[in-house]
Amino acid sequence: MSEKQEKPRDIHTEKAAEVFSIPSGDVTSKQRELAKALNFHNLYGGTGDMSFLYADAQKNSEQTAKHKQRFNKFSELVYRITTHFIAFFSGYFLYQLVHAVKTILANNP
Q1: How far apart are CA 74 and CA 79, in angstroms?
Q2: What pLDDT tens digit does each residue of the chain (109 aa) get?
Q3: What pTM, to 2 d.p., does this model score?
Q4: How does DSSP assign 33-84, residue by residue?
Q5: Residue 23: DSSP 8-state
Q6: What is the Cα–Cα distance from 63 to 56, expressed in whole angstroms?
Q7: What distance in Å separates the CA atoms of residue 63 and residue 53, rounded to the nearest whole number?
């Protein structure tokens, strides 16, 4: 009984890898989900071309990556501005406080 146990095939992952032209190990859950829909569409006699689903999914995936990149740059900018704003006003507040204490001490010997 030294037969090698083969891992069961995942036809949905294989289909997604084929459609997106990527290795099966790189298939995301969303890509697999779309491939599954296409497989069942074909299995149960669906008509028409559903490749538009994949084109839209791939386009959305690329747009999402670009959006995340832009958002990360924007959030970094907001963080820097906020940090400088807080530092400036913290320093200004501290300066005003020290000035007020000096004035009080100078007027009340």
Answers
A1: 9
A2: 455 667 788 889 998 888 778 888 988 888 888 888 888 877 777 655 665 665 666 666 666 667 777 777 777 887 788 877 777 777 777 778 787 888 888 877 6
A3: 0.41
A4: HHHHHHHHHHHTT--S--HHHHHHHHHHHHHHHHHHHHHHHHHHHHHHHHHH
A5: -
A6: 10
A7: 15
For the record, the structure tokens of 99 come out as 């000035």
Distance separating alpha carbons of residues 78 and 82, to the nearest angstrom:
6
Longest dimension (CA), the chain: 100
Q: Report residue 73 as tokens.
A: 């740059």
Name all contacts of 84-93 with Cβ < 8 Å and 24+ positions apart: none
